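Milestone 3.1: sequence recovery, worked example.
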Protein backbone atom coordinates (compact mmCIF):
# COMPACT_ATOMS: atom_id res chain seq x y z
CA UNK A 1 0.00 0.00 0.00
CA UNK A 2 2.85 2.40 0.84
CA UNK A 3 4.53 1.86 -2.55
CA UNK A 4 1.32 2.89 -4.32
CA UNK A 5 1.18 6.09 -2.23
CA UNK A 6 4.79 6.97 -3.12
CA UNK A 7 4.13 6.47 -6.83
CA UNK A 8 1.04 8.72 -6.66
CA UNK A 9 3.04 11.39 -4.82
CA UNK A 10 5.84 11.19 -7.38
CA UNK A 11 3.34 11.46 -10.25
CA UNK A 12 1.66 14.43 -8.57
CA UNK A 13 4.99 16.23 -8.13
CA UNK A 14 5.99 15.54 -11.72
CA UNK A 15 2.64 16.79 -12.99
CA UNK A 16 2.96 19.97 -10.91
CA UNK A 17 6.48 20.66 -12.22
CA UNK A 18 5.38 20.15 -15.82
CA UNK A 19 2.35 22.37 -15.36
CA UNK A 20 4.37 25.16 -13.75
CA UNK A 21 7.05 25.02 -16.44
CA UNK A 22 4.42 25.19 -19.18
CA UNK A 23 2.76 28.20 -17.57
CA UNK A 24 6.06 29.97 -16.92
CA UNK A 25 7.13 29.54 -20.54
CA UNK A 26 3.98 31.30 -21.74
CA UNK A 27 4.30 34.38 -19.50
CA UNK A 28 6.61 36.22 -21.87
CA UNK A 29 4.30 35.84 -24.87
CA UNK A 30 2.36 39.05 -25.38
CA UNK A 31 0.90 38.28 -28.82
CA UNK A 32 0.51 35.11 -30.89
CA UNK A 33 -1.75 34.79 -33.91
CA UNK A 34 -1.98 32.97 -37.24
CA UNK A 35 -3.83 34.14 -40.33
CA UNK A 36 -4.93 31.84 -43.16
CA UNK A 37 -3.94 32.32 -46.78
CA UNK A 38 -6.56 31.85 -49.50
CA UNK A 39 -6.75 28.21 -50.62
CA UNK A 40 -6.45 29.40 -54.24
CA UNK A 41 -3.07 31.00 -53.48
CA UNK A 42 -1.57 34.08 -51.86
CA UNK A 43 -1.91 37.05 -54.17
CA UNK A 44 0.73 39.80 -53.94
CA UNK A 45 -2.01 42.30 -53.18
CA UNK A 46 -3.29 40.18 -50.25
CA UNK A 47 -1.75 41.66 -47.12
CA UNK A 48 -1.94 39.73 -43.87
CA UNK A 49 -2.50 42.27 -41.09
CA UNK A 50 -1.67 41.54 -37.45
CA UNK A 51 -3.11 44.31 -35.25
CA UNK A 52 -1.51 44.58 -31.83
CA UNK A 53 -3.59 45.18 -28.71
CA UNK A 54 -3.14 48.52 -26.95
CA UNK A 55 -1.69 46.73 -23.90
CA UNK A 56 1.54 46.01 -25.77
CA UNK A 57 3.90 48.92 -25.12
CA UNK A 58 6.93 49.87 -27.17
CA UNK A 59 9.55 47.78 -25.42
CA UNK A 60 12.16 45.16 -26.17
CA UNK A 61 10.58 42.16 -27.84
CA UNK A 62 11.61 39.01 -29.62
CA UNK A 63 9.67 38.26 -32.80
CA UNK A 64 8.94 35.00 -34.58
CA UNK A 65 7.33 34.39 -37.94
CA UNK A 66 5.45 31.09 -38.13
CA UNK A 67 4.77 29.40 -41.45
CA UNK A 68 2.51 26.50 -42.28
CA UNK A 69 2.96 25.28 -45.83
CA UNK A 70 1.92 22.32 -47.92
CA UNK A 71 4.30 19.71 -49.27
CA UNK A 72 3.26 20.98 -52.70
CA UNK A 73 5.02 24.34 -52.15
CA UNK A 74 7.53 24.40 -55.01
CA UNK A 75 10.31 26.57 -53.57
CA UNK A 76 12.83 26.04 -50.79
CA UNK A 77 12.54 29.63 -49.58
CA UNK A 78 10.07 32.43 -49.04
CA UNK A 79 10.61 36.18 -49.34
CA UNK A 80 8.35 38.44 -47.28
CA UNK A 81 7.98 42.09 -46.43
CA UNK A 82 6.93 42.88 -42.89
CA UNK A 83 6.08 46.59 -42.74
CA UNK A 84 9.31 48.05 -44.21
CA UNK A 85 11.54 45.03 -43.48
CA UNK A 86 12.43 42.33 -46.00
CA UNK A 87 12.62 38.79 -44.60
CA UNK A 88 14.15 35.77 -46.37
CA UNK A 89 13.17 32.41 -44.88
CA UNK A 90 14.31 28.92 -45.85
CA UNK A 91 11.64 26.23 -45.69
CA UNK A 92 13.89 23.43 -47.01
CA UNK A 93 17.58 22.63 -46.79
CA UNK A 94 19.96 22.58 -49.80
CA UNK A 95 19.04 18.97 -50.58
CA UNK A 96 15.32 19.74 -50.58
CA UNK A 97 14.22 18.27 -47.25
CA UNK A 98 11.57 20.33 -45.49
CA UNK A 99 12.77 21.96 -42.28
CA UNK A 100 9.31 22.06 -40.71
CA UNK A 101 7.55 19.33 -38.82
CA UNK A 102 4.10 17.95 -39.34
CA UNK A 103 1.91 15.03 -40.15
CA UNK A 104 0.29 14.75 -43.54
CA UNK A 105 0.81 17.40 -46.18
CA UNK A 106 1.22 20.44 -43.86
CA UNK A 107 4.59 21.46 -42.44
CA UNK A 108 5.08 24.08 -39.73
CA UNK A 109 8.17 25.98 -38.70
CA UNK A 110 9.03 29.20 -36.90
CA UNK A 111 11.83 31.69 -37.44
CA UNK A 112 13.16 34.30 -35.06
CA UNK A 113 13.32 37.60 -36.98
CA UNK A 114 14.50 41.14 -36.33
CA UNK A 115 11.59 43.57 -36.65
CA UNK A 116 10.97 47.17 -35.69
CA UNK A 117 8.06 47.79 -33.33
CA UNK A 118 5.47 49.98 -35.10
CA UNK A 119 5.92 53.65 -34.18
CA UNK A 120 3.50 55.12 -31.69
CA UNK A 121 2.17 57.50 -34.36
CA UNK A 122 1.15 54.71 -36.70
CA UNK A 123 -1.52 52.09 -36.39
CA UNK A 124 -0.13 49.32 -34.23
CA UNK A 125 0.05 46.58 -36.81
CA UNK A 126 2.39 44.35 -38.76
CA UNK A 127 1.54 44.06 -42.46
CA UNK A 128 2.96 40.99 -44.21
CA UNK A 129 3.04 40.36 -47.97
CA UNK A 130 5.04 37.95 -50.08
CA UNK A 131 7.47 39.24 -52.71
CA UNK A 132 7.94 36.01 -54.64
CA UNK A 133 7.58 36.04 -58.44
CA UNK A 134 4.54 33.74 -58.53
CA UNK A 135 1.21 35.50 -58.34
CA UNK A 136 -0.69 33.92 -56.75
CA UNK A 137 1.84 32.02 -54.64
CA UNK A 138 0.50 28.51 -54.01
CA UNK A 139 1.33 26.16 -51.16
CA UNK A 140 1.44 28.56 -48.20
CA UNK A 141 -1.32 27.55 -45.80
CA UNK A 142 -1.10 30.28 -43.16
CA UNK A 143 1.33 32.68 -41.50
CA UNK A 144 1.76 33.65 -37.88
CA UNK A 145 3.37 36.28 -35.72
CA UNK A 146 4.53 35.70 -32.17
CA UNK A 147 5.84 38.45 -29.92
CA UNK A 148 7.65 37.66 -26.68
CA UNK A 149 8.84 40.11 -24.06
CA UNK A 150 12.59 39.83 -23.72
CA UNK A 151 13.62 38.37 -20.36
Amino acid sequence: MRKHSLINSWHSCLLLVLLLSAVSCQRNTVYHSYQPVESTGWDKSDTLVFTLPEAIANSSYQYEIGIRHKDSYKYRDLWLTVNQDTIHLYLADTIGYWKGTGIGEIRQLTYPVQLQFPSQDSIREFRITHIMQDNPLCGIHDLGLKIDRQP
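The chain has one helix and eight strands. The two ends are 46 Å apart (CA to CA).
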